[in-house]
Amino acid sequence: MKFEGMSLKKSFWRFIWPSVVAQWIFALYTMVDGMFVARGVSEVALSAVNIASPFVNFLFSVSILFAVGTSTIVAIFLGQENHREANRAYTQNLVVLGGISLVIMAAVWLSLDRIAAFLGATAATMEYVKHYILSILPFAWCFIISYSFEILVKTDGYPRFATMAVTAGALLNCVLDYLFVMVFKWEVAGAGAATGISQMVTVFLYLKHFLSPRATIRFEKPRWSGAQFWRVIKIGLSSGLTELSAGFTVFMFNHAILRFIGEQGIISYTIIAYVNTIVVMSMAGIAQGTQPLISFYYGKGDEASCSKLLRYSVRASVGMAAAAFLAAMAGADMLVGVFISPSLQELRDYSAFVFRIFSISFLFMGFNVVAGGFFTAIEKPGESLMISLGRGVVTMVSALGACIALMGGAGIWWAPTVSELMCLAVTGVLMYRLEKY
């Protein structure tokens, strides 16, 4: 692979920074949509984008599941110098994602009203939610394939190109958001279309790389392998669930907030969710940036290098978590002001207050996400799945229920911190049992 011959630490930083930046840019896609919708339409429309966001999380989770599983297998094959099997795994992944995309698009089109209601759309937000999902739906295949290509380009040894491509898409998204929402007045549908078109452009940029002579991973006539398909699922499931859990968390919080606080609370949570997504994806960027390296050395049987990469990842995640917490505490009022107009000062103050409470959870999530990514990279999906399900479902549901029971609606904002601490205990036990690393 392209990083051979570099020092391990240099390879680590070379891979994680482009990965983290790419994750930030992916997170900013929806955040930019929200900013333009809040300013160009209304705060109610902003909350509708948040209500629809689990659908986008679902698309990305499908992509990540197959991308992480496939890239792990491809990296292991490359470490074993088996380029033909690496190419076959890559090509089969693309065919599978194309088929899944068509199924999702058809299913959502036929069940749009029920899906919008299930996500939590109210009478005030129903039409906005439906319009946003409908504007994204024709580009669902782009969301799924784009993120898969982004991870595989990094596995191919070109993390900087991956970052350049996703940056180009993000800049285009900003321009199109301004045109479609502020100039053409297409409201939330314009924001969704802007994001979809930007993702499509990114797909073609990645495709150009894989068709170029410099690519190590290439298209090859696919030979269906059921065993490899299930191996991909097994390896990538925890990473897919990590992304899906973000959408599940938004879904649970939206329903809890509507019940215990009201629709104004959804506006506050929408802003918090945008920042939380950036922080989570920063940690995921560290995990996914090191994944090709760890899998490569794991394929070579070099346990010492795997152990060093784990230590580098943990240190980076702890530093990033501390920075995110301090930034949230210092900049809460400024951030809230970007989304909520000055005429709603009471809502501004409340949103900044609960955001600071929520941000305490940032301090504990990094180790959980990085540890889950490490287990995935060394083909230990069971442990990785325990961490992913713990963070996104088991501990979050338990913490949310307990905090609401103890503190009422105010407990909603403390639940993420309690959930991360519960998951941290489980992660610590799993890592302690992994003695050789």
From TrEMBL:
<feature type="transmembrane region" description="Helical">
    <location>
        <begin position="266"/>
        <end position="287"/>
    </location>
</feature>
<keyword id="KW-0812">Transmembrane</keyword>
<feature type="transmembrane region" description="Helical">
    <location>
        <begin position="389"/>
        <end position="407"/>
    </location>
</feature>
<keyword id="KW-0472">Membrane</keyword>
<feature type="transmembrane region" description="Helical">
    <location>
        <begin position="52"/>
        <end position="78"/>
    </location>
</feature>
<feature type="transmembrane region" description="Helical">
    <location>
        <begin position="190"/>
        <end position="211"/>
    </location>
</feature>
<feature type="transmembrane region" description="Helical">
    <location>
        <begin position="318"/>
        <end position="341"/>
    </location>
</feature>
<feature type="transmembrane region" description="Helical">
    <location>
        <begin position="161"/>
        <end position="184"/>
    </location>
</feature>
<dbReference type="InterPro" id="IPR051327">
    <property type="entry name" value="MATE_MepA_subfamily"/>
</dbReference>
<feature type="transmembrane region" description="Helical">
    <location>
        <begin position="132"/>
        <end position="149"/>
    </location>
</feature>
<dbReference type="InterPro" id="IPR002528">
    <property type="entry name" value="MATE_fam"/>
</dbReference>
<feature type="transmembrane region" description="Helical">
    <location>
        <begin position="232"/>
        <end position="254"/>
    </location>
</feature>
<keyword id="KW-1003">Cell membrane</keyword>
<protein>
    <recommendedName>
        <fullName>MATE efflux family protein</fullName>
    </recommendedName>
</protein>
<keyword id="KW-1133">Transmembrane helix</keyword>
<dbReference type="GO" id="GO:0015297">
    <property type="term" value="F:antiporter activity"/>
</dbReference>
<feature type="transmembrane region" description="Helical">
    <location>
        <begin position="12"/>
        <end position="32"/>
    </location>
</feature>
<dbReference type="Pfam" id="PF01554">
    <property type="entry name" value="MatE"/>
</dbReference>
<dbReference type="GO" id="GO:0042910">
    <property type="term" value="F:xenobiotic transmembrane transporter activity"/>
</dbReference>
<dbReference type="InterPro" id="IPR045070">
    <property type="entry name" value="MATE_MepA-like"/>
</dbReference>
<feature type="transmembrane region" description="Helical">
    <location>
        <begin position="353"/>
        <end position="377"/>
    </location>
</feature>
<dbReference type="GO" id="GO:0005886">
    <property type="term" value="C:plasma membrane"/>
</dbReference>
<feature type="transmembrane region" description="Helical">
    <location>
        <begin position="90"/>
        <end position="112"/>
    </location>
</feature>
